[in-house]
Amino acid sequence: MLTRADLAKYPFLSEAAEYVRELGLSIDELSAPEFGLVLDRAERRLEEALSKGRVSGDVSNESAEILSFPVSNLILSLVGEERARRRFALAESKRAYGLLRQEDPEKLEYIASTTFAWKVKRLDVKLGRRFYDFALSLPDFLRNSVHLREPRWNLPNRVLDHGFVYVTRDEAARLMEEEVRTKILERSGRSPDEVPKLLGSVVERAKGLVIKWLGVPTKYELPKVPLPEAMPPCVRHIIDSLDEGKNVQHMGRFTLASFLLNIGTGEEDVVKLFKPATDFSERMTRYQVEHIGGKRGGRTKYTCPMCTTLKTHGVCFKPDEICETIRNPLSYYKAKSRTLTNEGPKREPN
Amino acid sequence: MNPTEQLIRRKFQEYYLTFRKEFYLPPHPEEREYGFLLFKEKFMVRHRAFRDPSVLLGAIRDLVPAHIYFSTAYYQEPTAAMEEKGWKGADLVFDIDADHLDTPCKPSHDRWKCKGCGTVGNGGAPKICPKCKNDRMEEQTWLCEQCLRQAKEETTKLLEILYSDLGVEPSDLRVFFSGHRGYHVHVYSTQLQVMGEEERREIASYVLGQALDPQLHELDEVNVGGVRVIEGPQLGQPGWRGRMVAGIYDVLGEEGDRLGLSPAQVRTITTQDRDEFFKRPFWSSVKGFGLSTWKTLSVKAVDRRSAKIDTVVTTDVHRLIRLPGTLNGHTGLLTTRVPRERLDEFDPFRDSLAFHGEMRVRVKDSPRFQLAEREFGPYLNEEVELPSYAAMLLLCKRRAEPVG
Lengths: 350, 404
Description:
The complex is a heterodimer of chains A (350) and B (404). Chain A is α+β, with helices and mostly antiparallel strands and 350 residues long. Chain A contains 16 helices and 4 strands. Chain A has 3 domains: 4-100 and 182-214, no CATH class; 105-177, no CATH class; 228-341, no CATH class. Chain A has a 4-stranded antiparallel sheet with strand order 1-2-4-3. The model of chain A is unreliable at 344-350 (pLDDT under 50). Chain B has 404 residues and is α+β, with helices and mostly antiparallel strands. Chain B has helices spanning 3-17, 53-63, 106-109, 145-164, 197-208, 239-255, 263-270, 274-279, 291-305, 311-315, 348-351, 388-396; strands at residues 34-37, 44-48, 67-71, 73-75, 87-90, 92-97, 111-114, 120-122, 137-140, 173-177, 182-187, 220-224, 227-231, 320-322, 327-328, 333-334, 336-338, 358-366, 369-371, 374-376, 379-387, 400-402. In chain B, helix 6 (239-255) packs across helix 7. The mean pLDDT of chain B is 90. Helix content of chain B is 31%, strand content 24%.
């Protein structure tokens, strides 16, 4: 079914991994002059991803193309930079999408059901003006579609028939892009036991590339003193409601406490905020705040709930433009306090 | 515990002590967490596990809880603290409760009282008090036939969506009467149980037809040889497409006049057989109906055909849910398994009774109600001798008190 040219196009395939395994190469052998091309291509893959956000589809040297992919992943895992991993995964998966969407349905089906273990059926159905080539099992569809925000990926807007979602050829390729991205993130996230000697200098060079293209990894520190102006509308609304003596439901209280503790507010100050509540009990409030802070009970420090959860429970309040770019109130705070204090790096290049 | 609670607890204890049947247990009962809500101070005993139904029954006899729950989730260590349990998966569950339905009978049997200022009203409680803007409400609800009939209808719609759209095998699905105001549907599927919250949110959204955009289902105006024609989904197409079209026929027939159709137009629709109507290119068949009217209609149709589930229950992958075969402390009725194929005939007021014999209680006030095909009430400040199941309902609902 697959040629070596296919493996070069799609080095994330199970067959490509098998091909590499069969060559039985060890990392040290990469220093041999005949593998210079492989190392070169591995570094170029990274630089392309970091600089342009795209990896080129150059497949002139098939074998170097296949072998360089796991090497790039290995280098990335040794560099250990989250930003770089994400960018590389995105760039490689975009390249895969560009190539996959041009494939015939047979090949797509084959790749989907082998490498990604999708339960997928071939279709030959035209509904309205659209032609559907595949029906994909519901869990396989959802696992990938939940990452996509356009309304057409929402389940109510899909054709769902006996546990299978109809997808066009292009949509199947797009969902596979998500699989590739997840797969690369997972692979490049595994930490190898030790840095192979040969790769030492390569890793150093890669670290340099990351700084060159993504900037110095200054960890942006949240302001020491909580900045009320940087708080998202939902949190400000909860504080206002408490101030006005209105009752706030459990989810709202939990959101407020976990949010404030996560931006470094002291427990005493959090407890104080709940004082106007009609049913305020200092002892209970302190216990619960300490529980959320991880000092009591299960000892987990709770993070703030996601925006989707807050929407479901009616805590989300008058979302603004920043809200559209974030998924958690804490990210709102991070983004806004950064612009307010004018510190830290600007957004990553896109 | 006040005297009413003591009496209820004693009757519950008797029931569980003489209980001889096997409990209905969900698949992999040993991987579940169990929880018991006690009468005493509404204390919750959680993180319990049982390998054996008889041990579970023993615990129930010891504790005599008001409510008994088990987790929809499977865990490696069900008794560990939440974050150390080792989540393996969870059944896909749906909850349909009259609390979430907008039934016209609510003002006649439900009441609310604002905890802030004492304002009272009939019907379902508003989100915030119209007088003092407080949102803490005390609710007094009643279980009524009309509400439960509506809940059953929603359940029927849900089952149809689960079978034909989600492809759930009937043998993987169980329906239960909650013992109070609704129905629970559990789906046991190895394929679906690993789904996370985000995936379940999509499924909840699908069942509700939330934010469904008819245009993404290819309802659109197109140009055919210079003529603008409206095209859209057809009857018989899978999923929401066919269902939307079928719903449109109902909406047109029932609300046509309000939508600006003449009585004659409504008649031409309702006198035709549904399938006949849809055989014609109906999207362009109603004069004066443009794309936006059809879109509004489609959204209404979807709303009618959607199943009004509680999204929180379906999305929660750590949910505790009522254990079938146990007493519901809100009513003294049993959480009862309903055979799928007999949902239609199931009568919650006949088929979920637990208590026998007679009891004498003092009723504060109670609307008229029906149990075991017998009529009771209305009562106001009177002492009555009642069949135990009826007396227990009034006691559990705090509408009656023990005598003497």
